[in-house]
Each structure stands twice: as structure tokens, then as C-alpha cells.
Amino acid sequence: MRSSASFYRLLFIFVISLCAINGTPTFSQIRCGTVEYMNQLRKEKKIFEADESFEKWIAKRIAARSQKQKLERTEETTYKIPVVVHIIHNGEPVGTGTNLSAAQINSQIAVLNKDFKRLNADAANTPPEFQTVAGSLDIEFVLAKRTSEGLPTDGIVRVKGTKTAWSDSDNTSLKALSYWPAEDYFNIWVCNMPKLLGYTQFPISSTLPGLETASANRLTDGVVIHYKAFGSKADGNFSLLPNYDLGRTATHEVGHFFGLRHIWGDAPSCGGTDYVNDTPTKMERLRAAHQPP
Length: 293
Fold this sequence. Notes:
The protein has 293 residues and is α/β, with parallel strands linked by helices.
């Protein structure tokens, strides 16, 4: 189990991204597809570890890093993550339809940085159960400035897709259209997905036994987001889904990318776990929500 001392900073971001997506879905099928996507990878034998094995692996990594920081006693510095946004469009002019403008893309990067540093304007809406553990993460998402060959770039790649609509079952063919080395860049694909808001590939724990062939998944490593849920209405008159217009879909999916699960582990009952110690149980959350003022 992850301790609050080592992991609470990420926990807040994931929870607030779930709570801050305002309203109800425009149509019932639109949602996060990460769970289904990871199950499909297991079915295709592209990953082999179970959820609990992955959690044990990541807990060891967190503990080791925490111990290393204590020994080195180094001053924390902001860790910059170079991002490449792959716009998979349908042939429209830039700034139209699926071919999003640079302003809209930059809007989304700004939302990620505010959310993960807890500088978002609605941070005051943090549920009481999480206020004591809410924190910030000293990272910064930056659109890539250099290609792997050392050439200048704005971190935005525009590619006309081979189809007009995509699903998680198209994962390999979608990402093959445009990909930068996952060891050096954080890949985000933006496209038209009628049935999903987005989905993510969890980190690959290649040091676990039986995962020797999992390295091929580096070619699909990253996050996929619906083009109408990418960016924030606060930064421009962008064409976004009414209930998903704050940029929080990407915050949610990036939380998955960093290894976070849905709170309570997607269990239908109140007994599920997300492997994070400081998450109140579902029953505690419900009790708190119904207490008199």
C-alpha cells in the first residue's frame, strides 16, 4: 500500500480530476476507457502482471526513491516532462474540427500544470476528507522543443488519420501514425473517439518476472484523449463537450499514466481499493457527504 507521506501529492490530483469534471455525460457511453484497455492488453498477452503485482512493484520504487532522497538530502527541483501532442485529424484546416489550434493545445498543457501543482482555481473545492493530504507535485509539462534528432519543434505533430473515428481497439494502428520515443517524450494522442473520453496505458513494470517481452509496449506508451475534451473553455472559445470543457479529462488520464487507479479500485461494492493508504473508503466518503451542516 502506498503511504500518504510518499504518495499523497499525486492522490489529490487524481481525486480532484474526478470531482471537478462538472455535470453528467453528454451521452451515456462516453467515459474513461483505461480499465477496459488494460484488460484488453492482458487478453492479448501484451502485458502479464496482475494489478496487485504492479502495485507491489511501484510501492518498492516509491520507497526506494524516498530513501534515496533522505540520504542525498538534495534540494528539490522542478522536473520537466517534454510532451508531444499528436493531433490525428480528418483533413480539416488547423483550428477546425479535429485539427485543434495551438492555442487549444497550450490551454490543455496549462491545465495539467495548474492541476498537478495544485494551483487550479477550484482547489478550494477539495472534499474535506482530502484536505489534510492535498499537496502539489513539483513537475512541469512542457511541449517538446527538440526532436530526437535535435531539430527545433513546437511539440505538436499533425497527421491525417486513416479513419474518421477511433476506439481503444484501434490502439496500435492509431499510435503507429505518429510516435516519438517514449523514453524521451510523453506522448499524447488527440483524436475523435465517439465512445470514450480517453484512455491510458499504465506504466510497464518490466523488472517483474515474466515481463521480459513487455518492452514492445513502449510503442503504445502514452495517453489518448477525445478532441472535444482537450483544453479548457477558460482559455478560449474552443469547441468542447459542455460537461468536459475544463481540461480535467487529461488530468484524469495522466493520473493513470503515473500509476493511479480509480478510487476504490472500480469495485462495484464499497470494499474496493486503489492501493493508496490515505483514500477514505467509499463508505466513509458517503457518510461525510450526507452529514448535516
